[in-house]
């Protein structure tokens, strides 16, 4: 359907766009829905483009550009087997106009269109958009740097993927094409821009634009040089590197900014140049060698002259990283080895950048989440401190002795400074601890397993004399930074500090859970969590529940209290520590469960209003599961109490469709349901029909949890379902049908089907059986994947076990004559080796044994010729390594690649169920079982089995078989 | 040039032990190169250049006859009927084409001189004219493909081949050279030259009295007849050339040796059947000997050839090992030139792709310490090959061999390389780490190994890689973290301990 490019339509569209900006969801949502409903129409994108170009209302222009970009993002890609969502004429028209439109638009719109171009480019460039490059390059001539920057920005978004994609013919063909068309004009533009910079060196606004260009050009240089050193750039290295070098040393007052936080253009450009130099030094050493010393000097000078302000952080860390990567290369060792050089690096580059700055202090207090993430989780890759640490490690490669010597002097003098006047000089101690931490972890790597000190410092001694005193101080709120340092020290060296010292620190850590500082109480929780996971000998936890027992009450109280401290109401570290404490303490927490579960449900209720911290939520559900498990292990009847406490909240979550929580709720319910020993409670049965609603199954994230829950229903309530909810069986099979149609979810479909086969009374599914098999065959024909095949093999063998070998043969041959033989010959015999998993293999072994020994047609029809091959393949299943080959075309089947991928399933470890072995009671040792079954068969028809075995089984298999017979102490008659 | 096709190589990760045929990394002719062509490769075509300062004696000799002519004078002269004029003009043209800088190849072709030059090749009464014409054509053929094509389409091949039996050795030598340039252009012309029955004639020119410069030319031309794939030279031609090359390989002259080795390197750069033909003539011991040559131009192609051979079957690799390649490789891994290190590491990576017996020999020959040294300090391109070697080693080695690998200190440099700006290599290292962890898991040694990796700073890096923009890298990193570095949330059930191997633990801990 096409929409006309009429004024009326433009008007309507404007109205709806306006409504999408309305704060009232009652107005906004319908408008959004409407737009989505018409976006499939021809000309829709062109209407948007017209609006963003011609609308009188600037807000509408921007809104149209954003809507356009999102439309492109959702629809441009043509997904195999799915309809093309944008008609060809619109595609052509968009590509013909968008570059021009982008370049002539104001910046806000330009950015949106530039993004759209790169999305389109990702799909269409270069083959389906051949003139894009020429069109862009031609604009370089325009002399208008607004236009040029637009082009450069677009080029950057198109080319930056060269930085992270794997080499492939396709990729390199594209890069070659880009190089041919782009490298020379870019180089000329680079030179021209630099010249313009000197002619305009007194014109601040011109300089700003020109420097923006230089930044983009330098970024493009990085992308184009990433995969390999292109011939063009090797030939023009002189030009690029000389200019880069000049730019590194350049300063211009006009470009300096007053802002302390935000990096200015000069800083951005220089840090990109550092990256470029580092790339060359790392990858194209041979060619870059002669430029390198100059860059080392320039970057060095840069570091010495650059201030402590935050705006220089990226530049400084990139610059230090460059030095760090160079100094550990043997042939550049000489650039650093002079003692004065080393001292000066330590003094002027490393120490200043390890200092705790005003900005760090601010972050510590006001932006603690960010501070913690940087400091604790190693997402400090771009920080000065991290870079300085890396430089220390790099230097230690060749100069460990001198470097350690220089730094131990520093550590001592800083500690002395601190001792003189702690309240003024506490930052010195912080720096000392930081130095020890960074240097000691280096020594650790060299002396693996040695818990003693390195040359710099004795770790345990340092702990006792400098860390413990801070933590023992009565005031948990004094010198919070030093407290955090101390707690972090415990975490880092927990494997080196002896257990008795750690044990001493546990009550101290529990005490610090009360600290006001978010960083301090978070670190305390995290440290406890880490300590509780440590392993001692025999793989048991290092700390036993008994050792922690004296602190249980205060530990649990402080942990939950910490969740009420300002800023920590959804603190994932605290919640994880709660979970870990439960897991370590086990029965010891039972007396506290009533209060704990109340607090947890309240928390759950509160966060379900607006779930925002996925980790916090995950650990909270884990903690709930642990409470249930631990309590019900001792007293299964207590499950009712949990249901009372939880179901109200669960109902609310389900009713309000809190998507993030639904998979969790289903898992907890599975756990609760499985805890019931008797028949399924009616409260669950009331829920059953709702679980079959298609809408729940639309969300990929729900599927595993829902299947798990349905399995629990089938396991506990199959008779109730058969008697009281037989009308729901088609719905159940509908779910199965939907799941097996998908390559990503077919295994889930089989889980469900296997539970149905295993638990449902046979007569209740009788009428559907044939249809089930037909569906499976259809899928096998339309897309036969290894994963499907493996599940299919397990299923038919389970069916054989449950309903008998004859029933299996009959159902196949009932679909089509001789089909059973075909399945044996084309699927079971050749593919059985692919089955993986202990229980799965066992099911197949028992099923095949049945086919061999309890299926009369196998003995006296045309199927008889398959008897020995089937036996042979069964012995193969027992003895040969698993066949884990996957055909080439299946490589890229991936759950995450399926369209419509939504929230990943978050599996709760503590809601986990034990692996279920449906043949566990029946068969213990499948090999012996085979021997016994063969023996039984041979007594029924004496003489036949030995002859079938000895005439066509291969010698090796025969030998194995004799082994089984011996083990079972039977013979074949 | 050494271009790994990582996709093909990586395959072997996934199909470990499945198909030994695809386990080895062939040198794949990638038409796609972003880089400059390598300087240490053999020249495709060569121009015969007149020295800038020719020795005065010969200068005087020729001064009398050939003054510098303009292009128009040359055209007139060449088209004249007087053989002397023709000679003068041809010589003047040849001189132009032989000058060091900017030889006017294009102008001469556009002037339409080729047909006449080809005609002069046939004037057996005037060997000097034949010589000058052959030289001029040699230099034209040394140009671009288009220029070579002009020579071929001018009908030069047949008369040049006939000149191979000229009684005048200089004429004959120049014809060899010209044919070499034509054949060097690519498979199409190479096969035309071959089908002109040139090989037996070249073979006949080789004797113990052949002057060394002439012999060098013949060898070079032969090497061009072996060169290029898609398609390869026909089987028959190869069979004719192999004994000759084998003989040339016994020579002492380094240029002859170099080109003979290059020829063999081309012939081995292909499927196992092709490799087999070379292996069967028994040249491997000599090639391995040449790998110890101090001449780079001999070392490079002999190493290349042996490297190619070990991309072949296990048997072919075994022959190379038996010839002693593994005892030469350690010193080459430590060679001052990075390109040699890289080539040696590449050869090693293919030995490591073999059965565990080969891996055992590799260990026995002391290959692990230099391998680790390369991973630590090599140039990036060398490190890359070394990483491949470790990858192959890990997938094919026995548990015991893996222990030796870990003990040799391979993890530290691997972990450091996780910051390299090359997603493919990062992915392979992640796969290696994951593989070693799995093996350690079987030995119940995972925790120690995890600790080691964490202490090396590996955990930090792997965690950071979870945010890598390349999804495969990010996912692999995530899997490692999830499978190996997440605390097991044991459900109150302790898993039965697998067979403990306390030895492994001690050996790991003792890492020096």
TrEMBL record, chain A:
This is Exportin-2. Transmembrane segments: none annotated. Belongs to the XPO2/CSE1 family. It comes from Equus przewalskii (Przewalski's horse). It holds the Pfam family Cse1. PROSITE patterns: IMPORTIN_B_NT (PS50166). It comes from the Eukaryota. Residues 31-104 form the Importin N-terminal domain. The keyword Nucleus applies.
From TrEMBL, chain B:
Residues 1-56 form the IBB domain. PROSITE patterns: ARM_REPEAT (PS50176), IBB (PS51214). It comes from the Eukaryota. SUPFAM superfamilies: ARM repeat. Keywords: Protein transport, Repeat, Transport. Pfam families: Arm (PF00514), Arm_3 (PF16186), IBB (PF01749). ARM repeats lie at residues 112-155, 155-197, 282-324, 366-394. InterPro entries: ARM-like, ARM-type_fold, Arm_3, Armadillo, Importin-a_IBB, Importin-a_IBB_sf, Importin_alpha. PANTHER family: IMPORTIN ALPHA. Functions in nuclear protein import. Belongs to the importin alpha family. This is Importin subunit alpha. It comes from Equus przewalskii.
């Amino acid at each position: 359907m096409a929409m006309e490019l009429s004024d009326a339509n433009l008007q309507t569209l404007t109205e709806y766009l306006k409504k999408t900006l309305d704060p009232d969801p009652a107005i906004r949502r319908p408008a959004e829905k409407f737009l989505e409903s018409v976006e499939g129409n021809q000309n829709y994108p062109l209407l948007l483009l017209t609006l963003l170009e011609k609308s009188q209302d600037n807000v509408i222009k921007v809104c149209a550009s954003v809507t356009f970009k999102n439309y492109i993002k959702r629809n441009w890609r043509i997904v195999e087997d799915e309809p093309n969502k944008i008609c060809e004429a619109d595609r052509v028209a968009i590509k013909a106009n968008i570059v021009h439109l982008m370049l002539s638009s104001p910046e806000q719109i330009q950015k949106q269109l530039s993004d759209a171009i790169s999305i389109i480019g990702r799909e269409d460039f270069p083959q389906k958009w051949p003139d894009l490059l020429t069109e862009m390059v031609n604009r370089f001539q325009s002399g208008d740097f607004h236009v040029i920057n637009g082009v450069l920005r677009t080029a950057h978004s198109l080319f930056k993927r060269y930085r992270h994609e794997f080499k492939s013919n396709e990729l390199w063909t594209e890069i070659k094409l880009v190089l041919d068309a782009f490298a020379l004009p870019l180089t000329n533009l680079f030179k021209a821009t630099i010249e313009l910079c000197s002619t305009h060196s007194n014109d601040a606004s011109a300089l700003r634009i020109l420097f923006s260009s230089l930044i983009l050009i330098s970024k493009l240089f990085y992308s184009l040089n990433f995969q390999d050193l292109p011939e063009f750039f090797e030939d023009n290295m002189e030009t690029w590197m000389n200019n880069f070098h000049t730019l590194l040393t350049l300063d211009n007052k006009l470009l300096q900014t007053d802002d302390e936080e935000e990096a200015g253009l000069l800083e951005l450009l220089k840090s990109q140049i550092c990256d470029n130099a580092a790339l060359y030094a790392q990858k194209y050493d041979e060619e870059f060698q002669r430029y390198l010393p100059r860059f080392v000097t320039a970057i060095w000078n840069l570091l010495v002259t650059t201030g402590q302000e935050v705006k220089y952080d990226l530049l400084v860390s990139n610059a230090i990283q460059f030095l760090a990567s160079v100094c550990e290369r043997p042939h550049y060792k000489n650039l650093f080895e002079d003692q004065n050089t080393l001292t000066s690096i330590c003094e002027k580059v490393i120490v200043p950048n390890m200092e705790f700055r005003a900005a760090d202090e601010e972050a510590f207090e006001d932006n603690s989440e960010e501070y913690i993430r940087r400091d604790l989780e190693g997402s400090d890759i771009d920080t000065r401190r991290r870079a300085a640490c890396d430089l220390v490690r790099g230097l230690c490669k060749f100069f460990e002795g001198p470097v350690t010597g220089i730094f131990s002097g520093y550590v001592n003098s800083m500690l002395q400074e601190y001792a003189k006047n702690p309240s003024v000089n506490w930052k010195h101690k912080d720096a000392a601890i930081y130095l020890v931490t960074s240097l000691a972890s280096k020594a650790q790597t060299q002396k693996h397993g040695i818990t003693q000190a390195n040359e710099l410092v004795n770790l345990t001694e340092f702990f006792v004399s400098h860390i413990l005193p801070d933590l023992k101080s009565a005031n948990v709120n004094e010198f919070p930074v030093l407290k955090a340092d101390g707690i972090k020290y415990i975490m880092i060296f927990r494997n080196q500090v002896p257990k008795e010292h750690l044990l001493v620190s546990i009550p101290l850590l529990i005490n610090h859970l009360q600290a006001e500082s978010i960083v301090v109480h978070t670190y305390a929780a995290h440290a406890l969590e880490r300590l509780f996971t440590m392993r001692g000998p025999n793989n048991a936890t290092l700390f036993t529940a008994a050792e922690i027992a004296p602190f249980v009450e205060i530990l649990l109280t402080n942990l939950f209290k910490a969740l009420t401290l300002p800023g920590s109401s959804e603190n994932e570290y605290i919640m994880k520590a709660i979970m870990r404490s439960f897991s370590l303490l086990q029965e010891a927490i039972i007396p506290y469960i009533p209060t704990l579960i109340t607090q947890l449900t309240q928390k759950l209720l509160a966060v379900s209003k607006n779930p925002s911290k996925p980790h916090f939520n995950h650990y909270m559900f884990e903690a709930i599961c642990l409470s249930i498990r631990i309590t019900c292990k001792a007293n299964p009847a207590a499950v009712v109490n949990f249901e009372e406490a939880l179901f109200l909240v669960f109902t609310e979550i389900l009713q309000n469709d809190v998507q993030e929580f639904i998979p969790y709720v289903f898992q907890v319910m599975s756990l609760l349901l499985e805890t019931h020993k008797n028949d399924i409670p009616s409260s669950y049965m009331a829920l059953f029909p709702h679980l079959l609603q298609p809408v729940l199954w639309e969300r990929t994230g729900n599927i595993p949890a829902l299947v798990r829950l349905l399995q629990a229903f089938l396991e506990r309530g199959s008779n109730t379902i058969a008697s009281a909810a037989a009308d729901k069986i088609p719905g159940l099979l509908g779910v199965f049908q939907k799941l097996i149609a998908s390559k990503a979810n077919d295994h889930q479909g089989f889980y469900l089907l296997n539970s149905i086969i295993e638990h449902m009374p046979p007569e209740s599914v009788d009428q559907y059986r044939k249809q089930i098999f037909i569906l499976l065959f259809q899928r096998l024909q339309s897309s036969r994947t290894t994963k499907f095949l493996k599940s299919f093999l397990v299923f038919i063998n389970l069916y054989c076990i449950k309903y008998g070998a004859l029933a299996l043969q009959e159902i196949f041959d009932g679909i089509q004559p001789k089909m059973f033989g075909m399945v044996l010959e084309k699927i079971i015999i050749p593919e059985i080796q692919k089955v993986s998993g202990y229980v799965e293999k066992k099911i197949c072994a028992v099923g095949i044994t049945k086919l061999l020994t309890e299926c009369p047609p196998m003995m006296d029809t045309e199927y008889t010729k398959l008897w020995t091959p089937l036996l042979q393949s069964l012995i193969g299943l027992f003895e040969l390594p698993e066949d884990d080959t996957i055909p080439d075309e299946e490589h890229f089947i991936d759950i995450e690649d399926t369209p419509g991928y939504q929230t990943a399933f978050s599996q709760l470890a503590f809601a986990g169920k034990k692996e279920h072995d449906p043949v566990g009671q029946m068969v213990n040792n499948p090999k012996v079982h085979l021997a016994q079954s063969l023996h039984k068969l041979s007594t029924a028809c004496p003489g036949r089995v030995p002859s079938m075995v000895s005439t066509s089984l291969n010698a090796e298999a025969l030998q194995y078989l004799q082994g089984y017979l011996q083990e079972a102490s039977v013979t074949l008659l | 040039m050494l271009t790994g096709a990582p996709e093909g190589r990586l395959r072997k990760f996934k199909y470990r032990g499945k198909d030994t045929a695809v386990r080895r990394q062939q040198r794949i002719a990638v038409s796609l190169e972003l880089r400059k062509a390598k300087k240490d490769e053999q020249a495709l075509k060569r121009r015969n250049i007149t020295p800038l300062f020719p020795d005065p004696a010969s200068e005087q000799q020729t001064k009398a006859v050939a003054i510098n002519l303009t292009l128009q004078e040359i055209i007139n002269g060449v088209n004249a009927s007087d053989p002397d004029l023709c000679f003068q003009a041809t010589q003047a043209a040849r001189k132009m084409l032989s000058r060091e800088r900017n030889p006017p190849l294009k102008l001469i072709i556009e002037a339409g001189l080729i047909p006449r030059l080809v005609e002069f090749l046939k004037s057996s009464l005037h060997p000097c004219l034949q010589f000058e014409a052959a030289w001029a054509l040699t230099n034209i053929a040394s140009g671009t493909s288009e220029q070579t094509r002009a020579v071929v389409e001018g009908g030069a091949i047949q008369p040049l081949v006939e000149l191979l039996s000229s009684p005048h050795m200089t004429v004959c030598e120049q014809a060899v050279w010209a044919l070499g340039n034509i054949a060097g252009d690519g498979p199409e012309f190479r096969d035309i030259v071959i089908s002109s029955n040139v090989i037996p004639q070249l073979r006949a020119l080789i004797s113990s009295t052949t002057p060394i410069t002439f012999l060098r030319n013949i060898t070079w031309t032969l090497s061009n007849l072996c060169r290029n794939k898609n398609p390869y030279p026909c089987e028959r031609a190869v069979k004719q050339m192999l004994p000759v090359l084998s003989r040339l390989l016994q020579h002492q002259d380094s240029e002859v040796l170099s080109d003979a080795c290059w020829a063999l390197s081309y012939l081995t750069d292909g499927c196992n059947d092709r490799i087999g033909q070379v292996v069967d003539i028994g040249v491997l011991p000599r090639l391995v000997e040449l790998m110890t040559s101090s001449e780079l131009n001999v070392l490079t192609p002999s190493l290349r050839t042996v490297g190619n051979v070990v991309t072949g079957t296990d048997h072919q690799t075994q022959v190379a090992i038996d010839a002693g390649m593994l005892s030469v490789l350690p010193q080459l891994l430590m060679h001052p030139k990075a390109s040699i290190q890289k080539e040696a590491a590449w050869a090693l990576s293919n030995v490591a792709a073999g059965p565990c017996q080969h891996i055992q020999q590799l260990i026995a020959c002391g290959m692990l310490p230099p391998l680790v040294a390369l991973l630590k300090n090599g140039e990036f391109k060398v490190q890359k090959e070394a990483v491949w070697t470790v990858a192959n080693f890990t997938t094919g080695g026995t548990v015991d061999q893996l222990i030796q690998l870990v003990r040799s200190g391979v993890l530290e440099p691997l972990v450091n390389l996780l910051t390299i700006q090359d997603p493919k290599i990062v992915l392979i290292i992640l796969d290696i780490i994951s593989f070693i962890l799995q093996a350690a898991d079987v030995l119940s040694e995972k925790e120690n190994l995890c600790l080691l990796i964490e202490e090396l700073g590996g955990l930090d890096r792997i965690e950071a890689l979870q945010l890598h923009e390349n999804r495969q890298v990010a996912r692999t990193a995530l899997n490692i973290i999830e499978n190996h570095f997440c605390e097991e949330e044991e459900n109150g059930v302790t898993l039965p301990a697998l067979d403990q191997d306390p030895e492994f633990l001690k050996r790991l801990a003792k890492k020096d």
